[in-house]
Amino acid sequence: MTRVTLVVGAGGVGKTTIAAGIAALAARRGARTLAITVDPARRLADALGTTLDNHPSPVPGHDRLDAAMLDAAAAWEQIARTHADPATARRLLANPYFRAVADRFPSGQAYAAGEQVLTHVDAAGYDRIVVDTPPAAGGTAFLHAPRRIRTLVAGRALRVLTGPRLPGRRLIYSVTARPALMVADSVLGGRLLEDIAEFLLDLSAIYPGISRRSRRVEAMLQHAGVVVVTTPDPGPIAEARRVTTERLVPRGVPPEIVFNRMLPAGWAGTFPTPAADPIAQNLARWGLEASHHQAVLNAFAAHTGLNPRSVPWLAAAPDSPAALADLIAAAGIDPVS
Amino acid sequence: MLERRLLLVTGKGGTGKSAVAASLAIAAGRRGLRVLALAMDDGAGLARHLRADSPGPLPRRCGDVSIALVDPGAALDQYLRLRIRVPRLAAVSRIFAAMAETVPGVRDTVMIGKVIYESTRSRWDLVVADAPPTGQVLSYLGAPATIAGLVPTGAVRDQAHWMAQTLKDPRHTAALVVATPEELPTIEAAGFVADIARTGSIPLAAVVANRVLPAADFDDPGPDAAGPAAAAARHHLALVAAQQRHLATLAPTQTIPHLFGVRTPGETAELIADVWETP
Questions:
Q1: Which of B96, B103, B156 comes nearest A97 by C-beta?
Q2: Is B152 within 8 Å of A196 when comparing Cβ atoms?
Q3: CATH number of the domain that B179 lies in?
Q4: Distance to chain B for A124, nearest Cα, Å
Q5: How far is A44 from chain B (nearest CA, A)?
Q6: Which domain holds residue B144?
Q7: A24-68 pLDDT tens trace
């Protein structure tokens, strides 16, 4: 059975790097592994292979490790082709609103990622799938995406614009025309509402498929392992706390907490600073930072009852999967457990 | 910097966007300006840096500064009543709320419209918006033009046109983009600068490099030197070298130093505010 690991956290904390490292280490330890990345830095993308797209491809020089990059637009195209009849799918794909929903609806990208993961789980080609979650859907938004998508597709918008019963295509609001719609239409000037209602009708054609499928995505995410990445800065810490406590309540399985960009615990403390020695003064200022990092980590551990792992602050993230795997192994993170 | 009516602060997540936005508001408040700090997310980051409680849609005073957030629902309601002059009908509101859910351009227009509207009120000398990360803010900036393209005539189109013009006006509006001297933040900032230069959607006030380390006043102790002092020296030198590389690409117009030993977001924002007081 495929085990899925979601890597979550605030923007800018190094999620992509940590996720790639966990995947590389899992592969090294014998698991057939897929790393799904969202928006890798160029050097990491180069290291994972130059043909990164929705289809997994082997990472050069690494047995058992494949990588894919989330392309939300392509994933939504796949969703439309799978769940709608060919004519409806063609109309949807040509519709500018469909593109907008796929690209810009906040949960759209997250849901597309979940769909993709489920496809690979069903294909059963991997022991492990490590998912780097989209930044805009950080934290638990990712887990809620399937429900949000159901709400969108069969939601309020469609009912309001088309009335309680779904009318035939051309009847949309000539029949259900209510004064409110006429006001809105005069304000918007033209056929905008009708265009949107037509689009929502097409979208509703894929609702049964999406509904079934999104419940499976939801179930899969409920059973996924979670790695929460943070830095010792207040914003990311607040986000990590929120994710950790929200997540702990329904599941009872603790997430793995990773503190990234940590200074060595050995530097913590105050050091004598002879005025003439700039190297000692440099240690003094970094030592203060290191003490603060340890204090923040200890407070987080006390608050959550979890044991966070530390990944050191490096001038540049490692640019090979092997070096990333070393970094994760050194931090004591076990990707197979 | 503080002479304009509206400053939009953006940057990649984790670069200190909210700290910089809060610092601008604090600097304006110290100068005696009536300033509103406006969050376009849940407001938690901005509130931390202004030592304020979680903000709501109504401005609340906190020291020299007022703080509020842009609530899409409340903003939509206000937009319909004040700007479009739609009669206050629950059914009309529902239709627009449904549209705002479905057509992303509508929600974005209402969000940015609320920010612009506040900046034109005589109640404020300056509005500082803690805007979303760069990628998202570009879609906000483009939203009025998108709407103007979708809607052929009417009040919505006129409004969208007015918004686009106000965003473009260099006497009224400017954007600041914040980056830490690292690979991805620098790439995002450069992309933002190139995009607004190409589209002319908003004038650029500053490229801000945040958390810049001081140059080392010591030499590399060499690979054989052991102990924490040598390790910290190598750490500092490696970070400075990497930062210098990215600073060369970023070409910042304003540099904010790494604040050693500063603990709280409130302290951070107050120290950064000093930067905007020196001419």
A1: B103
A2: no
A3: 3.40.50.300
A4: 34
A5: 11
A6: 6-214+252-277
A7: 999 999 999 999 887 666 666 777 765 677 788 899 888 899 998
Picking from B235, B240, B259, B264 by the largest number of A CB atoms within 10 A of its own CB, the best residue to mutate is B235
Burial of residue A91 (number of CB atoms within 10 Å: 0-12, 13-18, 19+): middle
B105 contacts A285? CB cut-off 8 A: no
pTM as predicted: 0.88
Please give the Cα distance from A104 to B194 (Å, whole number). 21
A187/B14 CB distance under 8 A: no
| B98/A161 touch (CB, cutoff 8 Å), yes or no | yes
- Tell me the C-alpha distance between B235 and B188, whole Å: 25
Complex ipTM value? 0.88
Is B54 inside a domain boundary? yes
List the single residue in A with minimal CA-CA distance to B235.
A315
CA-nearest of A251, A269, A262, A249 to A308 is A262
Higher pLDDT, B272 or A63: B272
Contact A234 B48 (CB under 8 A): yes
Q: Which residues pair with A68 in a beta bridge?
A: A36
CB contact under 8 A, B102 and A264: no
Chain A residue with Cα closest to B262: A289
Question: Number of structural domains, chain B?
Answer: 1
CB A157 within 8 A of CB B99: yes
Tens-place pLDDT, residues B51-99: 999 999 999 999 999 999 998 878 877 777 776 666 666 666 776 776 6
pLDDT, residue B69, reads: 95
**Has residue B239 been placed in a domain?**
no
- High-pLDDT (> 70) share of chain A, %: 76
Confidence of residue A108 (pLDDT cuts 50, 70, 90): confident
Reduced to 3 states (helix: H, G, I; strand: E, B; else coil), residue B47 is helix
Rounded distance between C-alpha atoms, residue B46 and residue B50, angstroms: 6
Q: A322-333 as b/e, with b when 16 or more CB fall inside 10 Å?
A: eebbbbbbebeb
Q: Is residue B232 part of a domain?
A: no
Say if B234 falls within a structural domain. Answer: no
